[in-house]
Design brief:
13 helices, globular, single chain, 11 strands, 6-stranded mixed sheet, Rossmann fold
């Protein structure tokens, strides 16, 4: 476990709810007038296999931070001003479950019916690829707070869409470099990653990085089970037979929890060095069931990797999150915080250049 936590620290960059639910996070007494608000549509998983370990912690961190921002004078400078430049932040949260087609419609609803000023969201790489073209079509300011796939801006260009967090290429290049610096043997590598953009991109980036960092390495079995498969007996058997030096995985959420619980008793972690590129978010759920010696990434300096920094903002958010929710914040709240604080900075910069008026485009 000590090695696992050390690996998490050294990783380099960065209440289930159903359907659409609105949260008016307003400070002070009474309802603020419409012109005093900045409306944000927040999209993250609130149900399904991605909710418990990722979507719900992300929103828990998000609503906590919005409450602190709306109170004003709580966060250290430069985030201490109330609201967004004095505008009360009014958040509407939408469940990301349901697939890309559903999320495109939910996005249109947020922009055209709820009249939000900004949409901040998306975890699933499929959703991250589907929403940006619609955002530009509607001229809707959109922030991708998580979005692991690097293909969003590598395959297209958008005027109204921005990302505030690292993507899979950074995660997997840094993972390969970390293992090289620690003299981890990686003459043979195998992988198990979900069969969609995130999993495919993660394996391609890791395999490519190892081939450069450790010339002569051999890529063996590459498995791509369907997302939310839940049962991995066949895949675990194949990985055990392969006996690769490294088993790489970008599994996440309920899929990662299921894989660890199924692979542990069968001895996979004793046969190969297992490396989870983005695995820190399941530590609160798995606890000591996560085997010793596993290498774990936190998708940047997030979660356990961020705690040693000890700066005022990190310490304040960490302590408040633990106080409210009884557990430490993993990567998901950190990425949500980064998105919200990035949005606050952008809005206040625009207002400063606009005579203090609310930005409209």
């Amino acid at each position: 476990m000590k090695r696992m936590l050390k690996a998490a620290r050294l990783a380099v960059v960065t209440a289930a709810l159903t359907s659409t639910m609105a949260f008016g996070l307003v400070a002070g007494q009474g309802q603020a007038a419409a012109e005093e608000k900045f409306k944000v549509g927040v999209v993250t998983f609130l149900s399904g296999g991605a909710a418990e370990s990722f979507g719900v912690p992300a929103w828990n961190g998000g609503k906590m931070l919005i409450e602190m921002i709306n109170q004003g004078g709580v966060l250290p400078a430069p985030y201490d001003k109330k609201g967004f430049g004095g505008l009360i932040v009014d958040a509407t949260v939408v469940d990301e479950a349901g697939g890309a087609t559903k999320q495109v419609q939910e996005f249109r609803n947020l922009v055209q019916r709820e009249n939000v000023d900004t949409v901040l969201g998306y975890v699933s790489s499929g959703d991250c690829l589907a929403v940006p073209p619609v955002a530009d079509e509607l001229k809707a300011f959109t922030i991708l707070y998580d979005c692991g796939t690097p293909r969003v801006f590598e395959e297209a260009s958008y005027k109204y869409v921005f990302r505030t967090a690292s993507h899979a290429a950074m995660d997997n290049i840094s993972l390969a470099k970390y293992m090289k610096t620690r003299n981890v043997k990686m003459d043979t590598i195998a992988g198990i990653n979900q069969d969609y953009a995130w999993g495919q991109d993660s394996w391609a980036d890791f395999k490519g990085s190892v081939s450069v960092i450790n010339p002569g390495s051999e890529a063996k079995t590459a498995l791509f089970p369907k997302i939310y498969a839940g049962q991995y007996g066949t895949e675990i058997s194949a990985l055990i037979r392969e006996k690769a030096d490294i088993v790489h995985s970008s599994l996440w959420g309920g899929d990662l929890q299921a894989f660890v619980l199924q692979a542990g008793p069968r001895g996979l972690f004793d046969r190969s060095q297992v490396a989870f590129a983005a695995g820190d978010h399941v530590l609160p759920q798995l606890g000591q069931k996560m085997p010793d010696g596993v290498i774990i990434g936190a998708r940047g300096v997030n979660g356990l990797a961020a705690r040693p920094r000890g700066d005022e903002l990190t310490t304040m958010l960490w302590n408040e999150y633990e106080k409210r929710y009884g557990t430490f914040p993993v990567q998901a709240p950190f990425r949500m915080w980064q998105g919200i604080l990035g949005l606050k900075t952008a809005v206040e910069k625009a207002m400063a250049a606009n005579g203090g008026k609310k930005p409209t485009q």
